[in-house]
Design goal:
elongated, mainly alpha, 13 helices, Receptor-associated Protein, single chain
Amino acid sequence: MTLLLILSVSTAMLLVWAGFTLGSQLLVDYRQRFTADTTFNLRELYMVADPVKLYALNLVLLLLATMMVWLMTGSAILGVVSAVALGFLPWFAFNLLKKRRMELIEQQLPDTLQLFAGAVRAGLSLVGAIRQITSELPLPISQEFQLMLREQRLGVSLDDSLENLTHRVPIQAINLMASAMRIANETGGSLAESLERAAHTLRSQHAMERKIRALTAQGKMQAWVVGLLPLGLLVILSKMEPQAMGMLWTTRIGWGAIALVLMLEFFGIWFIRKIVAIDV
């Protein structure tokens, strides 16, 4: 009996030690990956922040969210699931910031090209026009052209700096601008006219996109209404019939039903938004 007790205690201690070691290694790997990805994303967004502090803040939020879900539902599994879901929150946040930045650059580009065309008509070269106009441009498009000027000072050719710009800002408007500048620079055509035509084309495209966005706004709103309606009913029924609805949070069948509902909700919203998304 004593030997069995010793073996049980030793096995439990070994499992605890293995779990602690594995958890520590996973935490170290997560920290390295998080700081590396955050450093890269902050550099792309021209933002200054300490990745280590952001990691600590993210870890605190994950622990608080896990504890709150656990206390509210009484299920440790749902707490872990919520922590895993919130672990993707920084990725979604950075992607949203990048998307907003690209949209701002795309909106600012027609006016920027018009300014460049005016400077070229005044007798400046393309590099001289960029150097003179960049300080007057709003953020974030001015950051990209300032980096382009720094590359020019370091000896990078115009074609290479334009190629780097298209890689940093992978949108169709920047590709159109870079193509117009390359063609005018190589063939000796009228650069001012090329820039004005590119600006006019981009303005027409933006007007069409705004019109399409207005026409499809109702369909996109319906996707969110239809998607959030079952969740609202779930909250109402949980208040009206807490004993019956409690099985969703405390049994495996309930967890499976919640997972199925969430999966169907995700694909339903995704399909509706894909249907109403029209690419110009």
